Each structure stands twice: as C-alpha cells, then as structure tokens.
C-alpha cells in the first residue's frame, strides 16, 4: 500500500524510516506541504494519507481525497478536532489516530518546565554566556517537602504524580474520575483545596467546555502566593489575559507553558524574522519568571518511534478492513 505523508519534517522521516523495514507491504512518500483542500489532489494514486495536528482534514479536503480514491486518513497524533468525521463517514474514508504514545515524554517535560522556571535556568544560561556570574534574580525554592497539585490524573497526570512523589513532594490531585492506581500516595481533593494548598500546580486534563479557562483570575486568586503553574496540556485551559494579570499581581514564583492560547500560528514554525505586532506570547516572555516552549512535550525519540509504529499498524488495519480501537468515527 502507498501512503502520502504530508508536512514531513526531518524528524518525521527519520522516525518513520527507522521502522519501515518491519512493514514491507507499506511504501511511504514524504512531502513538505501540509494536507488541505489544495494539496489533497497530490494523493492521486495513493491508498492513504498521513496528516498531523496542523492539517486541514475538513469537508473539501475529504471530498478531494475521495475523488482521488484515497480510502484512509492516518493522523499521526492523538487529537482529531481538525478532521470532519461526519464527511469521512459518509464518503467511506476510515480515520485512524495514535491515542497515547508516551505519557512520560509529556510529564517529564512538565517537570523540566517547573524546575527551569523555579531555578531560573533560562536566565542563568544567558547570564553565564555574558560572563555574568552573579546569582541575583536566580533564587528558587526546594520542591522537597512542598505540595504538588496535579489537575487531571489520566495517563500523563499519573506519571507527573509519580515524578513529584520522587522529588519528596506531598501530592494532591483533582480529577472527575480519581485514578485508583495512585491512591496509596495521592490525596484527591476539590479544585478549591488543590489551588489553596499547592506550591506547584500542573495541568493534565483535556480541553473541554468545562475546562476551558479553568485557570482564570478567580482561580488564580485562590492559589498560594509564590506558586509555580505549569501547562503542558492545552493552551485554552488558561485565560491568558488573566494569567498576565496574576503575574503582575506577583502571584507566581514561576510559570512554565508548553501550550498557550495564541500558539496555533507559531507551533513548529520559525518566525524569528517576523515582527509579531499583537503578540501576547511576547508579553508573557517579557516577565523574568515565565518560561515558554513550543508544544514540544511529546517530542522525544521514544514518543516519535511509538507514533511511527502505531501509525503503520493503523495503516495495515485500515487497509485490510480490520477493526481497530484507534479508529475514530462521528458520534
Ligand atoms: P487522559 O485522557 O489519559 O487523562 C485526562 C484526565 O483528565 C482523565 O483522568 C480525566 O478524567 C481528567 N479530566 C477530564 N475532565 C476533567 C475536568 N473537568 N476536571 C478534572 N479532570 C478532568 O489524557 P492524557 O493522555 O493524560 O493527556 C492529557 C492532556 O495532555 C491531553 O488532553 C492533551 O491536551 C495534552 N497533551 C499534550 C502534549 C504536548 O506535547 N504538550 C502531548 C499529548 C497530550
């Protein structure tokens, strides 16, 4: 079977080529363009297309793929909010995703952000490069014997709980569905209690109507002064303007963000030559206690390798008509 792989970056081709030998029946062609209504016709002669979080797999793209006889959409990510499942279903195009690849990758990055903004490593790195060996502005606090508050204790949040326990922290958690496997060392509390008692708050719940802007000026006011907030989940869990207000109120010792509301135009792009006129990212970065990365929580060798293998397994299941728990359909 032939797969046209859209929006291919070097790390994608490397991770897929490394496992392709185990899939002799699969042939992959990589292109730099992303999948959208204009580029869908490039899939003429291919059985499947492979897209990512930034692909436009809406109605027009799917119509064009159908016209060119493509039977399968392989998303190499967990999210599929950019896929029109209803149209795919009507056209008989199967859609497969990679639901969970490496929770450790994201949780370890969350702790990296927490440590980085606590000990001001982003500042220290630049200071030493400028021969400034003074310690002013670099004071942090020990995590040992402090309290971590983990919001959402599914796959990633559970790993984060274990990492925090390893640092000698007391671990509080808030989730609609407590995770039984954590109960010997995690104390489940209400959101209000978690906010009031945590020195480090890390967000690991999905973005839903209920969780959108769950971190806003009211919830920020309920937090302890000097708290560290980390978001590696989805940008819109945090209301950015309120976060900026909270930073100005000196609420936070540190803020570590792998995701933020404005990220869509930035993610995985080099915009270093541009002047970003209305950028709240720039406003956030003007604060010395804020550390931002560009949605790289998933970006480890292990996660990319798992994404490659699962996507190719999905390809085989998809083409042979096998049932798959990685297939997503309109409700
Ligand atoms: P999961 O589905 O295993 O866990 C989510 C947990 O959140 C569940 O335990 C669920 O009960 C809980 N939850 C749902 N609604 C809630 C609410 N209103 N309040 C409190 N808890 C609630 O998901 P997983 O795999 O742990 O991923 C978590 C999030 O991490 C994803 O939704 C995604 O947004 C993000 N993510 C970020 C990545 C990155 O590169 N930065 C990569 C992968 C995922």
3D structure, described in words:
- The chain is of the alpha/beta class and 331 residues long.
- It has 2 domains: 129 residues, 3-Layer(aba) Sandwich (Rossmann fold); 190 residues, Rossmann fold, CATH 3.40.50.720.
- It is 34% helix and 15% strand.
- The protein is built from 11 helices and 12 strands.
- The strands form 2 sheets. Strands 8-7-6-9-10-11-12 form a 7-stranded parallel β-sheet, with helices on both faces. Strands 2-1-3-4-5 form a 5-stranded parallel β-sheet, with helices on both faces.
- The mean pLDDT is 95.
- 1,4-dihydronicotinamide adenine dinucleotide binds next to helix 4 and helix 6.
Low-confidence stretches: none
User: What percentage of amino acids are in beta strands?
Assistant: 15-25%
What is the architecture of the largest domain at the second tier of CATH? 3-Layer(aba) Sandwich
Mean pLDDT: 95
Query: Given the helix and strand composition, which structural class is it?
Result: alpha/beta
Number of helices: 11
- CA-to-CA gap between the ends? 29 Å
What is the total tally of β strands? 12
Rg: 22 Å
- Following the backbone from N to C, one meets helices and strands in this order, namely EHEEHEHEHHEHEEHEHEHEHEH
The helix content, as a percent range, equals 25-40%
* Dominant shape: globular
Q: What CATH first level of the largest domain would be assigned?
A: Alpha Beta
The CATH topology label of the largest domain is Rossmann fold
Report strand order across the widest sheet.
Answer: 8-7-6-9-10-11-12
CATH superfamily of the largest domain: NAD(P)-binding Rossmann-like Domain
Count of the domains:
2
